[in-house]
Amino acid sequence: MTDRADSTDRSGDLALVREHTVFACVMGSRAFGLATEASDTDRRGVYLAPTPLYWRFEKPPTHVEGPREEEFSWELERFCELALRANPNILECLHSPLVERLTPVGEELLSLRGAFLSRRAHTTFTRYAVSQRGKLDADVRIHGAPRWKHAMHLLRLLGSCRDLLRTGRLTVDVGEHRENLLAVKRGEVPWAEVEARMTRLAQECEAALSTTPLPADPDLPRVEDFLLRARRASAR
Q: How buried is 106 (Cβ within 10 angstroms: 0-12 exposed, 13-18 middle, 19+ buried)?
């Protein structure tokens, strides 16, 4: 009985992704401009759960894995909540150059990209960077070398944060930095040099914060108005 119930719940969750996705994109190395022949295709999406589902005691899920490999989706409200907090992964989804699905609701979500950006990004991006740097340092102590792929992505994240703070715009594709970053991934750059780059980028992020054009806080009223209108339209 429990297995059947779990299977039914899973089927309903996947139906939300299949039938109610408003925005879907490719993330990871392909979106960052760092893909190689061996790279996976990481898909991320946003679905709008029909409003009547919230009238039940059991609410719709805030996120769903699948149905494809390396696919993960968030319910619209949860996605907006995380974006307002300047979650790095969520903000990068909004700026992916590889969009696979877009409804009118999704188009409006993307039009709000600037409303989610604020100086909070400095805290969230650098906090995540500090966490990842600690893991890399632990790898070096224990194994004698870091996980080079993770080192590459940490450099990419710090560079993205610095440029966001400097310009007020978030750019996902690494552009001209591709080959330098892939050299790090291949382990061709000495760890001491990678460490120095990380330290320099962190310092540049800190310096950019004092002159950033980003507002102190995201535009909550604008995002909330969008969410309320989407919920009302879904209730009809």
A: buried
